[in-house]
Amino acid sequence: MHGKGFYTLTIRTQHPDFSYDSFKTPDPPQLIIDIKPGRRDTERNKDQQKERVSLLEREIGSIGASKQEQRCIVIDPGHGGLETGAKGKFGTLEKDLTIAISKKLAEIIKGKLAYNVVLTREKDVDVSLDKRAAIANNNKASLFISIHVNGSYRKGASGPETYFMSLNATDEEARRLAYLENNSEVLENNIDADNEDEIKMILWDMAQTAYLKQSSELAESVQNELNLLWGTVNRGIKQAPFKVLTGVSCPAVLVEVAFLSNPQEERKLLTEDHQVNVAEAIYRGLVNFLRTNSR
Q1: What is the pTM of this model?
Q2: CB contact burial 43-66 (16+ within 10 A = b; e otherwise)
Q3: Is residue 66 predicted with pLDDT exceeding 50?
Q4: Sheet holding 72-77, edge to edge
Q5: Lowest-confidence range among 52-66, 125-139, 188-202, 278-292?
Q6: Is 196 part of a structural domain of the chain?
Q7: Burial profile 23-33: b = 16 or more Cβ within 10 angstroms, e = fewer
């Protein structure tokens, strides 16, 4: 301390390039400095990530390479047409983000893996939940990935969530989300129709049981990569009775990439760069899953 109320502070760091934020508190008097890795560390992490993915791609090798037996991945951009889905504070619509991210994901897969890629919709149109499943089955899909953006009335809700099919929801919030997604189309107050839907759900849940382990592994792999991207606490993979997953005869997951109801996450999702980052994170999760299951 040099004189009354004056301090000399020296910051030592091993990082050649770093950034920091600082702020003061009056009682007790403190100077708080938050040191963050700089651009070099960020670029180094990105390079290491790219190298890891490249190794995984080479390890997968010729999966689906034969044109006669070329495998198919179906990507499902949630909502569309009159079904806008969630809406952000700045007017962003879920249906627009899901198609943007899905197209980017499709391009990455087609450019790097010997897989055929099919989108359930390629423009802003209505596609029924049954038709989305039919597209997957008609193309004999090996994997089905449904892309969505979350919404919540809870302030501060943030981060990605990845789901796989089960009649028993993980928690009440998962049950509510599944209900909203399942009933986004025009509802008819018809008890018989509701009963018919319930019977269909039970039958298709029995069909999805064959892929339960693989679906959960795919969900976990994608969730891990999205957590790394967003830097969020792991919300964990969840189960819920999503109709869009019930009719699919292959491992299937529904990815809520972030919360559109969170203004910070909405701002990021509006940028082209972050949409690419999200697509790349899902792709990395997909590659990890394929490596594990290629045998």
Answers
A1: 0.72
A2: eeeeeebeeebeebbeebeebbee
A3: no
A4: 116-119, 72-77, 143-150, 252-259, 161-165, 237-240
A5: 188-202
A6: yes
A7: eeeeeeeeeee
Instruction: Return the ∠ at Cα 120 (arms to 184 and 138), rounded to 5°.
Output: 115
Q: What is the pLDDT confidence band of residue 173, given thresholds at 50, 70 and 90?
A: low
271's tokens: 């940028």
| Identity of residue 97 | L
Asked if residues 101 and 56 have their Cβ atoms less than 8 Å apart, the reply is no
What is the residue type of 21?
A: D
Describe the crossing of helices 94-112 and 272-293 by its angle, rounded to 10 degrees. 50
37 closest CA partner among 21, 23, 19: 19
pLDDT tens, position by position, 102-157: 999 999 999 999 899 999 999 999 999 889 999 999 999 999 999 999 998 888 89
Whichever domain contains 77, its CATH number is: 3.40.630.40
Structural domain for 282, as ranges: 69-293
Q: Are 247 and 146 in contact (CB under 8 A)?
A: no
Asked whether residue 46 is assigned to any structural domain, the reply reads: no
User: Contact, 83 vs 72, CB < 8 A?
Assistant: no
**SS3 of 90, please?**
coil
Q: Is residue 32 part of a domain?
A: no
CA distance 276 to 114: 20
Contacts of 290 (CB under 8 A, 6+ apart): 60, 63, 113
Helix 39-60 to helix 272-293 angle (10° resolution) is: 40
How far apart CA 224 and CA 211 sit, in angstroms, is 20
